[in-house]
Amino acid sequence: MSFDPRHVREANRVLAAARADREARRAAFERQCRQRLPELAALDRAIQGTVAQAIAAALQQGADPSAAVERARRENLSLQEKRLALLRGAGIDPQDLESTPLCPICHDTGRQGGQLCQCVSQLAIAENLQELGRQLDLERFDFDAFQLRWYAAAFDPALGASPRELMESVLTVCRDYVQLFPAYPAKNLYLYGGTGLGKTFLSGCIAKGVAQGGHWAVYATAGALFARYEAVKFNRDDAPAAQEDVRRYEACDLLVLDDLGSEMTTPFVQSALYQLLNQRMLSGRHTVISSNLDMDGARARYVPQVASRLEGEFQELPFFGRDVRLQKKEERL
Ligand SMILES: [Zn+2]
After folding, report:
1. In principle, which of 2, 157, 321, 323 could form an S-S bond with 196, CB 3.0–4.6 Å?
2. Closest to 87 in 3D by CA, of 25, 7, 32, 150
3. Are 311 and 295 in contact (CB under 8 A)?
4. In 99-148, where does DSSP find H-type helix?
């Protein structure tokens, strides 16, 4: 598991607010109880007093403190019993006056066994999904909603199989990639094919699934991603925020780069793309690209260093069939 540090900060902020709220409600209840039971405050003070006495006795030098400590302990127990009887007599559950942690697993430290506790990680996952949800309609993006019926079942001699069979295996690879993340044999996938064949849909499903599994997933269209690099390079007004986005593109566990080839491929874009890919490969991070360009198209469009990264480091997933959006439109008419 790894998370965007911003998502972890936000998760901790939410938890701190929930803890403060819980403590405020407890304190308010305690005030109410003390108003109802004036003896309660006196008892609480006396109990505190016996604790102080025991500590003072234990710290005293010279004489053996054990008798004094024992006296304070007995006094404390007897006061506790009185307090309990008082509360029970008034129908108050003493537990409701105790400060208990919000998370019983980590006792609100946020960590468990050297890792983030699930109270923090679940919220960080939710933050990641919320961020993805700003670009993708996540409700819709689900492997189960991918309908193979839009892909022809008839054998295509040119393909040596039916488009449906081929797309079924594409779907299987995408599912396995998420299921096994980050251990799927291919670190990176290159989804390519014509418009309307489900590339954005499946790459969105991958981003969502990987994020749900507790990994930091970032989705960006090529146009939006390179615009952020340009904002940094040309020091536009939003450069600080763009710098933050660039950092996310480079540092996330999985980058889903959608619609590569749709951007204006300037020399600057070529170099930004090369650096991004190269840096992600070197640091062992995962990337999923979707594109209308097959490898020949990519070779024609990008500098050799980029094309060789794509060819050498990505598992190619060709998409087949007829534009699904078009078919749906035809069906409606
Ligand atoms: Zn916890």
Report:
1. 323
2. 32
3. yes
4. 118-133
- Are 265 and 251 within 8 A, CB to CB? no
Instruction: Give whole-number Cα distances, 151 to 78, 81, 105, 140, in Å.
Output: 79, 75, 48, 19
Q: Which helix (H) or strand (E) holds 195?
A: none
* CA 141 / ligand 1 centre spacing (Å): 30
- How remote is the CA of residue 124 from the centroid of ligand 1, in Å? 12
Q: Which of 313, 18, 65, 64 lies closest to 189 in space, CA to CA?
A: 313
Compute, in angstroms, the gap from residue 213 CA to the centroid of ligand 1.
18
Q: Where are the domains of the chain?
A: 5-97, 135-332
Q: What is the mean pLDDT of the chain?
A: 94
CA of 114 to the centre of ligand 1 (A): 12
Cα distance between residue 164 and residue 321, in whole Å:
8
d(C-alpha 25, C-alpha 18), whole Å:
11
| pLDDT tens-digit series, residues 282-298 | 999 999 999 999 999 99
Distance, in Å, from the CA atom of 120 to the CA atom of 141, rounded to the nearest integer, reads: 25
In the reported structure, the alpha carbon of residue 10 is separated from the centroid of ligand 1 by a whole-number distance in angstroms of 15
Please report the pLDDT score of residue 67 as a whole number. Answer: 85
Mean pLDDT computed over 118-136: 96
CATH superfamily, domain 135-332, is P-loop containing nucleotide triphosphate hydrolases (3.40.50.300)
How far is Cα 197 from Cα 222, in angstroms, rounded to an integer? 18
pTM over 0.85: yes
C-alpha–C-alpha distance, residues 197 and 163, integer Å = 11
The answer to whether 119 and 15 have CB atoms below 8 angstroms apart is yes
Cα of 106 from ligand 1 centre, angstroms: 4
Nearby residues of 321 by Cβ (< 8 Å), 6 or more positions away: 150, 151, 152, 163, 164, 167, 197
